[in-house]
Amino acid sequence: MNNFKKTYTSWVTRPAARRQVLGASIAAALIGLTGSASVCAQSANFPNKPLKILVPFTAGSGADVYARFFGKKLSEILAQPVIVENKPGAGGALSVQSLKSEPADGYTILMGSNSPIAVNVVTVKNLPYDPVADLRPVAGITRSMAVFMVSNDSPLKTIKDLEKRGREQPPLNAGTYSPGYQLAAAQFTSQAKTPFQTIIYKGLSQTLTDVMGNQIDLAVVDSTGSVSTATSGKARALLVTGDTRHPELPEVPTLKESGYPDAVHYSWTSFWVAAKTPDAVVNVLAEAMQKALAQPDSKVFIEKTGAEVMPLGPDAMRKFQLAEIERFRKAAQDSGFKPEE
């Protein structure tokens, strides 16, 4: 130990060695300062070029409609063009992977719904991304409850009818188009002991067509696409999954008030960026979104689609995401849901 100390002391006291060590330290410090200055400069000038919103679903979907509406709002507030790009596939994984491949500079934004941001954690084995570690929340945007729909001539008139039918003639055929809605139904079926035989469709339209034609007993669908079907008399809303009744379906009871307090479910939309996006950039986007959500025409637009405003900031959105992952995980455990390969 003494020999090592003597050798080390001798080495660092030599002029050439001192110059090398000092030079390396200064160089490292300058590189660090230059990198930090570059990031700060980019953040201070943000945004100075067009932004892009990635939508994990097809054009015309609820998420797509909101992305285009709020893309226009962001463009007006930030004074930069905003392009919407649809990248459907793999339950949203393709869009998330695409975001991860882009620089973490805030110019690429993900329109995240509960499927890629929370549900996939529970329903997909070997998910190729981590929605908590890989993504950073910018803002919550909307939320919408699910609706249990039946045909107009269905014998299911009340929740008691649904419980009785499920227990006496199992399984009851229920159609939906997302594992998220399957888990929403599971919050009811696991407590009521009325198992559903779930039939997964590719989209809302075919699900509603088959329930109206009595091809299935029940449809579990999002309110944004189904309320108009109910109010027009084409099918009947039996129950809703909100904390309170839907304003356009005031006569339809909630599962919560019908004896199932845990069967509250909302689908939601939100904006996300890559995890390493600088704080300053996230703050600019978050402030712009809160301004957009607070505008009166935003509330009117969202309510016309059958949803409601969910104006969560980054911190609140992260807490909400974590709570949702646990909610879906519990629903999967209680119902015996098996993740997809």
Structural overview:
- There is one protein chain.
- The chain has helices spanning 2-12, 15-44, 62-78, 93-101, 114-123, 159-168, 179-192, 204-212, 223-231, 279-294, 296-304, 314-335, and strands at residues 51-55, 82-86, 108-113, 135-150, 172-176, 196-200, 218-222, 236-240, 266-274, 308-309.
- The chain is α/β, with parallel strands linked by helices and 341 residues long.
- It has 2 domains: 51-143 and 267-335, D-Maltodextrin-Binding Protein, domain 2 (3-Layer(aba) Sandwich), CATH 3.40.190; 145-240, D-Maltodextrin-Binding Protein, domain 2.
- Strands 1, 2, 3, 4, 5, 6, 7, 8, 9 and 10 form a 10-stranded mixed sheet that branches.
- Helix 3 (62-78) links the parallel strand 1 (51-55) and strand 2.
- The longest helix is centred in the first third of the chain and has 30 residues, at 15-44.
- It starts with a helix and ends in a 6-residue tail after the last helix.
Topology summary:
Blueprint: H1 2-12, H2 15-44, E1 51-55, H3 62-78, E2 82-86, H4 93-101, E3 108-113, H5 114-123, E4 135-150, H6 159-168, E5 172-176, H7 179-192, E6 196-200, H8 204-212, E7 218-222, H9 223-231, E8 236-240, E9 266-274, H10 279-294, H11 296-304, E10 308-309, H12 314-335
Parallel strand pairs: 1-2, 1-3, 5-6, 5-7
Antiparallel strand pairs: 3-9, 4-7, 4-8, 4-9, 4-10
Helix pairs in contact: 3-10, 5-12, 7-12
